[in-house]
Amino acid sequence: MSGTGYQPGEPILKVNGLWMKFGGVTALRDVCYEMPEKIIQAVIGPNGAGKTTLFNCISGMLGPSEGSIIFLGHAIEGIVPHRIARAGIARTFQHVALFKKMTVLENVMMGRHPRTGSGMFAAGLRLPGMRSEEKLIRSKALEYLEFAGLAGCARVESGTLPIGKQKILEIARALATEPRLILLDEPAGGLNMKETEDLGELIQGIKKLGVTVMLVEHDMNLIMDISDRVLVLHYGEVLASGTPAEIKENSAVIEAYLGAENDN
Amino acid sequence: MGRRNWAIMLGAAAFIGAFPWLVMPFKAVSHYVDVMVFAGIFSLVCIGLSLLMGYAGQISLAQAAFFGIGAYTSGILTSKLGVNPWIAMCAGTAVCAAVAWLVGVPALRLKGHYLAMATLGFGVIVNIIFAEEVNWTGGPSGMADIPYLRFFGRKITSELAWYYLVWGIVFLVLIFCFHVIHSRVGRALRAIHEDERAAESVGVPTASFKVKVFMLSAVLASIAGSLYTHYVTCLNPSSFNLMWSIRFMLMVMVGGMQSLWGALVGTVLMTFVGNEWLQVFAELEILAYGAILLVVALFLPGGIVSLGSLRRKKHASALEGAGT
Amino acid sequence: MGTDFLQYVISGITIGAIYAMVAIGYNIIYSVTEIINFAQGEFVMLGGLFAVFFAGTLHLPLYLAFICAVAVAGCLGLAMDRFIIGRARESSVLSLIIITIAVSILLKGSAMLAWGKDPYSLPAFSSGGPIMVAGAAIQPQALWITGICALVVIGLTLFFRKSVYGQAMLACANNPQAARLVGIPVRYMVFLSFILSAAIGAAAGVIITPVSMMEYERGALLGLKGFGAAAFGGLGQFFGALVAGLILGLAESFCAGYLSSGYKDAVALVLLLMVLFLKPEGLFGNREAARLKKF
Amino acid sequence: MKSAKNLICLAALGTLIAAAILFWSRGEGIAAKEPYKIGAVFSITGGASLLGEPEKKTAEMIRDEINKQGGIDGHPLELVMYDDETDPTKCNLAVKKLNKKDEVPVIIGPSTSGTSLAVVGVAEEAQVPLISCAASYKIVTPVETHKWIFKVAGSDSHVVGKMFDYMKSKNVKKIGIMTVSDGFGASGREELLRLAPENGITIVADERYGPQDTDLSAQLTKIRSAQPDAIVNWSTGPTQVLAVKNWRDLGMDAIPLYQSHGFGNLKNIELAGKAAEGVILPLARVNIGNLLPDDHPQKKVIMEYTKSYEERYKEPVSSFGGHAWDSMYLAISALKAVGPDPAKIRDHIENTKDFVGQHGIFKMSPQDHNGLSKDDLEMVVVKDGKWALAK
Questions:
Q1: Whether residues D278 and D200 fall in one domain
Q2: Which residues of B lie inside 8 Å of C (Cβ-Cβ)?
Q3: Tell me, what's the pLDDT at B324?
Q4: CATH for A10-88+179-264?
Q5: pTM of the model
Q6: I want to staple B148 with a disulfide (CB 3.0 to 4.6 A). Which of B29, B155, D15, D263 is the partner?
Q7: B20-58: buried (b, 16+ CB within 10 Å) or exposed (e) per residue?
């Protein structure tokens, strides 16, 4: 699933006529969208708008009812999540999904999984190839921890970290898979102001690495600050898309979303 | 594998090595060597089960069936077809791996009680086959006069030779499994146990890893079965029935699922409890056995090794990060 | 040929009714607590042996013995939850499996000490020889078994559809938190489920004893077959359990009759595996609902 | 390091227990002369507990009687008994323990063929005579590699032979057989299939069922449709009663039902009630002491055993208790003759001739480590809830 048939500059992700139905409920309704490479793409919309469902379809957690998802020139809809991770899409979860009993470092080492290949026998017999690979995994993981600013707590059991650091750790773990596209599901949820600011910097840092970021977020300030493009979903349909400034002015969005949000 | 585990390993190896010389001078406990041979054989099954249950978080009530498949493959190949026992042992592992793959692929999609029941059903079916295929297995009355294991042409008959053979294999397997745990594969297994969805999201093919570890546990059970066959030189379906699958699970549980040492301690302890120390209760033994299980499951879910200390848990986890 | 077929059907239905009742016992506890009670089979055994005790040792009339045996088993079920399972509500699935297995070992051991290892029998509920239908023999007890099984199924269906308690129990099954919020005493519903389940298991034990006798070791296999039926029909489905129980009974009977009697016990299990592999939620289970259950 | 400490603690505990056991075992045996030991392994619990239970009771009773009479030549008799729970592994360990820890010169048991086969190798290796109470011929053949093994239960070939002789006298040509799928049933089935042709009997139906089955109607129906002259059921435990009940309920009285010797327990008749009337089976004389003519050589030992067993335990004797009696007294007579020397005991048992036991008159030889024949059985029929000699 390398990028054959994909030219640099083309959209990294194309979603065509995507439908997702659960029994009688339609969570995504004919979603069409093309996303350029190396940007920060925000996805917003009220609760139940289908944002997380869209993420789940892209990351393979759900197979869409209809439609196609093209990533780097390849159709990926309905492919199992671990192969999508290997193809270059990483994700975080709305409710932190760390391996809580593992250390911080081990969590990030887990992220190296799709980029390494030693099997059970190589591991059990401690073959030289596996040993050097293990060293590489460790050093790479430490690099990503450094990048995320968590190097100080590498040996701590991850479940004991405060929630803010857990969110960052989850991002670091996702980055360690060397994705082309990273999906962040409400990364700022539960963070305080300072933490959110740091998160914003981290996300921009990720963009600088050349990784496309797609994030679902409710924190409008964060979105307006960092994102290059915004996609608005409403009842499973695309309501609008454009730069943050355009979206701010879009009357339909204000009516459907911002207005309701401002009441709070 | 951390320094700490190596230290325990050396200590355990020294103890196991010295054990026969500690008990043999005393007539009243001299047969403990025999008990330990069985404990060693069962340990192999339980180490595999510990990887499967404790690390990868998958329940199996079919381990006795794999134990039996290994045993019967060895028994049939050596006594009916005259195959060399060591080759038969390898054949047994191949058969077990194949069967485990066939069963594991559909079964491991199930979780919890359903997985328990699917493996249980499979185990009982295998046992019925052992009892029904009279021409091959000797049926319910069993198969006798299976040849002894030979080592460079010499029969292995003495208890001591068996003791060191079995425990030597146990330690080799332990080292292998510790290496697996402290590797990319082992981390992936623990990740599957903790959060399957997250494991998938970082590229772990969870289904295939579950099947692989299931196969590894089956292969270990098969080796144990082959050893059992040549040690007892007789096979009977009742050594591989559901009760034994439950016993294996309990051994792992009593010792503690969080660590391979738990499997080892639990197996040795329960083998002694079941064959030796509860004998004084005579008829009441079954009640004592049930009571022990209940107490462990209710009040000591982490098993005996968790008694060590709670600090150990954090410590071990930290060391797993540091271990090389 | 026709006669044989009829005979297989009759014995299949008789044993199938027993499986169905055991399966219903599993279902009741499962639907309220999501626990599979591996000790279910032991209640069947205890029901039979207590009936023997009341009828044979205390010389109570058979119907009284039946009621007493069922009541005693119900109390044991309550005690099991109150003193053992209740303490482990938050344990992992694995711990719960072990705990119920431990309970079954304890019950079996106690029964062995109390009654010894010999099988016991009860007189049939009604005297008289077998009824001959087209050359096939129907034992009167078989009619009792199917009749009581039918009564239990109808009774339970009414109980869950119409009565307040039944509705409350179902509510607990669907969403314990919500049930607690609307003021349903979830704890009592759990007690009730254990009592009911043990009592129905025991009733199955009493009615089968005149036909097949009962000894302390009988529980495990009946429990296993009953579970097969429960999973086959879809866990938590009463009607499913009934149909699945009958299918299993018939399949076993036909396998013994037309194929190999030695592999008869494997039939139920092969069916069970096939259902688990192909349609894990069971024949009558709901896939969406099965997905929601925590395992 | 905690685990290492735990291991050390465990070792210390083990040593302590060992020391304690050593101390206690020394404390026993107050009598003047060194006690003679007999090791015993029976399936007192588990699947074959119906066999092991009376065996245990009988062995204990005999020990008490012998000791009351002052032991064997003044040596008190010590019975070291273990329960194998009908589990081959446990049985194997128990026999090893008897050899190493208890150093018994002779072992009686185990109860079942499966568990017996699991210890043949152990007894051979340790060179200790073992007198099994199970029936399978595999236990004692070939004699060359089973030098130290004896058995006191008649082989199934004797039972089948006796049964077929009787059938021939009744002009039975076609039979349907149904056997339980455990060691007992499998062995019986093997002999039935093997001996039928040479006796001119055709087996028209061959059915099996599980030891815990609750209904045998299907098997019986299938047999009925094969139209045999007689049905043979071969099982132990509740299924044999079930066979009788189902046979009667299906109205198959016209086809006589033969049971194996496993049915030889009055409890079975009690459980089957009226249904058992007319059931025919070959039985060892231990079950029918009162039916024997007074001049029968076994009459005395059987009546004595029956009387004391029934007085002590308030239950009827069974074949299995009889096996324990035979093995116990074979061991005792050997101990009396040659003392506690395993090799001498072995030779003594091998040369035992005309030993009058519960199950027959044993004629051991280097070629035959069983010593019984089909003449040691009687055909009986259930009549008025009791045994009666079949004419």
A1: yes
A2: 53, 59, 106-107, 109-114, 116-118, 120-122, 124-125, 128-129, 131-132, 242, 246, 249-250, 253, 257, 283-284, 286-287, 289-291, 293-294, 296-298, 301
A3: 34
A4: 3.40.50.300
A5: 0.87
A6: B155
A7: bebbbeebbbbbbbbbbbbbbbbbbbbbbbbbbbbbbbb
